[in-house]
Design brief:
Distance between the termini: 177 Å
Number of helices: 6
Radius of gyration: 60 Å
Structural class: mainly alpha
Largest sheet: none
Shape: rod-shaped
Order of helices and strands: HHHHHH
Strand content: under 5%
Number of domains: 2
């Protein structure tokens, strides 16, 4: 009996040692699977730093590309706006020029000015050598006597001396204007054709006074 007790105790001790060894081995395996050495930790940290640096460089590069693309698009938009603005101005000028038609030349301007001038009196209406005026019958009425007399004298003087003074020129224009006003007051008492002939005569006489004598 005494011999069996030590054996039982020894067996129990061996069993406890075996359990401890099994448990220790399992823990060692678990620790081994989750832990790392100092070298491995350093390598892993260095790898993480390199990866982070690469990601930063990539993000920075992408941001720079996007910024350059935005700037390029902005410049293109500004250029497009500028081109469109000046093209519209060019088209507008061309449209206005087309609406106005051909720009008049110097010859055109002279011709237009001459078209607006009264017709010069014919030799049968006015003697360029003597300055004698042959008045239309309508303007020989007593109503026009005063102004008609002034004009007769001034045109004879003009032909004789080769011209008149500035004051006399002004008097000629004033007298012809007075006669046209008097004629207009009688417009309802005469045929329209007679009125037009008399008015045209006075306009041509006033124009003649502005030209060199002897014609």
């Amino acid at each position: 009996m005494q011999t069996k007790m030590p054996l039982i105790r020894l067996s129990a001790c061996l069993l406890m040692v075996a359990c401890w060894l099994v448990n220790s081995s399992a823990k060692a395996q678990i620790v081994y699977s989750n832990a790392s050495t100092v070298g491995e930790s350093y390598a892993k940290g260095l790898s993480d730093v390199i990866t982070a640096q690469g990601n930063y460089n990539l993000a920075t590069s992408e941001a720079a590309i996007k910024m350059e693309d935005a700037i390029r698009r902005d410049i293109e938009n500004q250029q497009l706006w500028t081109d469109t603005y000046f093209e519209m101005r060019k088209s507008n000028r061309a449209y206005r020029a087309e609406e106005r038609g051909r720009r008049p030349t110097t010859e055109d301007a002279i011709r237009y000015a001459q078209m607006g001038k009264p017709i010069r009196l014919s030799p049968s209406e006015f003697d360029y050598v003597t300055g004698k005026i042959s008045w239309p019958k309508l303007l020989e009425q007593k109503l026009f006597d005063e102004e008609r007399t002034k004009l007769d004298e001034l045109f004879v003087k003009r032909a004789k001396y080769g011209g008149v003074s500035f004051d006399e020129q002004t008097t000629i224009l004033q007298s012809t204007n007075n006669m046209m006003d008097q004629l207009k007051e009688q417009i309802h008492d005469m045929p329209a054709m007679f009125y037009m002939v008399a008015r045209r005569f006075l306009e041509s006489l006033a124009y003649e006074s502005q030209l060199p004598p002897h014609g």
